[in-house]
Design a protein that fits this description.
Elements (H helix, E strand, L loop, with lengths): L6 H4 L7 H8 L7 E4 L6 H9 L4 E6 L2 H14 L3 E5 L14 E7 L4 H4 L26 H7 L2 H11 L5 H10 L9 H13 L13 H11 L2 H14 L1 E11 L2 H14 L19 E3 L9 H6 L7 E7 L2
Parallel strand pairs: 1-2, 1-4, 2-3, 4-5
Antiparallel strand pairs: 5-7, 6-7
Helix pairs in contact: 2-3, 7-8, 7-10, 8-9, 11-12
């Protein structure tokens, strides 16, 4: 989750795995050029600029509200900070000559998006079922649920949401079309909750029954997997020699892609069924950690949303 720590712009939030990210970027020279692909509230960007006092940083974000928060960092850091209102899938449109010494992706939904009822990401608040990271583009979640083909609902609920009761949830969504139940976060969550709990045996789940379905719907309508699969290889190609690429994921599908891509660029088997010989692989970098970095007990206590965060780090060869 992209939280932040500038009290004026970010309201006192703390960015996830901040110290671990800064430790990874400690390998970068003090006057390095950084890219924050998921600016959010600017917590990571601010901390990177403070830790590297001679550095410069380009931040990007597709959320129109992030642009407003970037104003505070622009005032504080002047020419050292630059912001672009864009989706990180558009990295290939940046000038080809612009290379970076450190690049960060903090995937998932920001606290600002989750905590704003009008954005429709969370069923903790009543609001329109929107879920778009960039509300200027695409269709909102309510429209998607009212009109999507069954195949696309399967992709969202079963594949991206990894909901075990996906058939029942999809049938309930289709039956609820035209009733208004799909328009608001609370009525949508209640529909899914009743559908799942009415068929579940044993003790109640520790998470809300609608959590996985909401996650899958959000991933689908924002094309999160597609844009990530395009952006991360492009980011690695834009690293300077010895540059660091750090990626924080919150979902098993995201982490699986990052793990396999990092294995590929470091000459390791991509997965258990990769039968290529070492001669058939190419190494363009090295893993800084064999396993993902996760939040410690103190951070978990302070920010429960960090429990699913995984940080993977790769360094490009010289």
């Amino acid at each position: 989750m992209k939280n932040a720590n500038n009290s004026q712009a970010q309201g006192g939030h703390v960015p996830v795995l901040l110290q671990e990210v800064l430790a990874a970027f400690a390998h970068v020279k003090s006057d390095g050029h950084f890219l924050d692909c998921t600016f959010g509230g600017g917590g990571h960007s601010k901390a990177i600029l403070d830790a590297h006092p001679n550095s410069t940083l380009l931040a990007i974000d597709q959320d129109p509200f992030a642009k407003q928060r970037a104003i505070f960092l622009a005032k504080e850091y002047g020419s050292r900070f630059r912001f672009l209102d864009m989706n990180f899938s558009e990295l290939d449109t940046l000038d080809k000559s612009e290379k970076f010494d450190g690049i960060l992706f903090d995937l998932g939904v920001s606290s600002y998006q989750l905590d704003d009822p009008s954005r429709g990401f969370s069923f903790r608040f009543k609001g329109s079922a929107d879920m778009r990271m960039n509300p200027r583009e695409g269709v909102d979640a309510a429209t998607f649920l009212e009109t999507a083909s069954e195949a696309n609902l399967v992709k969202a609920i079963r594949d991206y949401g990894e909901e075990k009761s996906w058939k029942k949830v999809i049938n309930a969504i289709i039956e609820a079309r035209g009733t208004g139940a799909l328009q608001d976060t609370d009525s949508l969550a209640d529909l899914i909750k009743k559908t799942i709990e009415g068929n579940r045996k044993g003790p109640p789940s520790r998470i809300h029954p609608a959590t996985l379905s909401f996650q899958g719907i959000r991933i689908f309508i924002n094309k999160e997997m597609e844009v990530m699969e395009k952006a991360i290889p492009e980011a690695f190609s834009r690293l300077n020699p010895n540059g660091i690429l750090a990626v924080i994921t919150f979902h098993s599908l995201e982490d699986r892609f990052v793990k396999r891509f990092f294995n590929r660029v470091t000459g390791r088997p991509e997965h258990g069924n990769d039968s290529r010989t070492q001669d058939q692989r190419e190494s363009h970098g090295k893993l800084l950690f064999r396993k993902p970095v996760t939040a410690g007990e103190q951070e978990l206590a302070q920010n429960p949303r960090s429990r699913s965060a995984k940080l993977r780090i790769v360094q490009k060869h010289q």
